[in-house]
Amino acid sequence: MPFRLLRFALSRKYPEPRMFRQPDGLKKSYDVVIIGGGGHGLAAAYHLAKDHGITDVAILEQGYLGGGNTGRNTAIVRSNYLTPEGVAFYDRSVKLFQDLSADLDLNLFYSERGHFTLAHTDATLRTMRWRAEVNKHMGVDSRLLTPDEIVEICPHIDLECGGHEVVGALYHPPGAVIRHDAVAWGYARACDRRGVEIHQKTEVTGIDVEHDQVVRVRTNRGTVETKKVLSAVAGYTPRITRMVGVPTPIVIQPLQACVTEPLKPWLDAIVVSASLHLYVSQSSRGELIMGASLDPYELHSQRSTLDFAEGLSAHLLDLFPFLSDVKVLRQWAGMSDMTPDFSPIMGRTPVKGFYLDTGWGTWGFKATPVSGETMAYTIARDDEHELIRPFTLSRFEDYALVGEKGAASVGH
Predict the structure, then answer these.
(1) What are the residues whose beta carbons fall under 8 Å from the beta carbon of 155, sequence distance 6 or more?
(2) Yes or no: is domain 111-174+251-338 CATH 1.10.10.10?
């Protein structure tokens, strides 16, 4: 038995410090208030403290840390997007993820698996070829595979796929999985060590704006003065933006996922099919983690449905028929904040001091570290980081959309 584990067994008191402190109450003022205690909010606070020396920061979370979409996603990391703007942005995120365990001094179980996006038609294959060329041009490792090459890497797949024959795939070797809860707790501990305050069970009830400038934030635990507020609340974004009178084109749709009983390791890669609306990977504990596309309606809800489980299971069996006796242990849902062009909204808004990190739809978790880095830069300098300039809210007025639907249409 390792000595460290033995310490826990023999000690009368818990021998390790808490991951982060719980402050007694809110101070009267902060330099920066971050609404949302998920991965993006925590990462922004971490980089504000680490990169810019801004430590007088309060993170306000209405529930518990990481209890929103950060704790409800399927933890896939990739950068094989379609637009040059998207590829550059997510490639930076992958590089940050690769070193994140060392940066946070915590094992995040980052595991490169390789990411397949299957093509079932000639039209889909053309899109995969397009993505592969854009990726190569941007220095990202992606390539097109033939059916025989797919089977060589993933021998358990049925290429006939219940009548939806697999005709090729976009293969992205750096595609990886990571423990999403570990990411949240690692950032929280790193924030706390740098003096950032994390306030759970603290719901924002209002934001006061005077002369087009944020001046204070009202919560169920008191009011705080501040000149800078970051909203990083995913599916709750419309509630926050209404408080400051900033309209956005965001709509909220449920996104569901599920996990099976543990199995012996057999699926090394991450397998995605846009045509089947399916993605699946196997966790380090042996569970199959699966999801589908967005539910086809606008709804602020985290309820799961039988229709999702039945449809997803049918498509999974098309690809892997031998899984027919495997049991689904649990399923859940999150709220996806969707934009018309399937790209995020990041940066400044018409209200001075009010910043947005939203519009993440189904691809927010994989952007956690780069969003923290770029939003911290933007808040500290009141000027958008170069990587997020294409994603500003003003692009919808300027007709400068960043169309990523071809690389993000499955909810993965």
Answers:
(1) none
(2) no
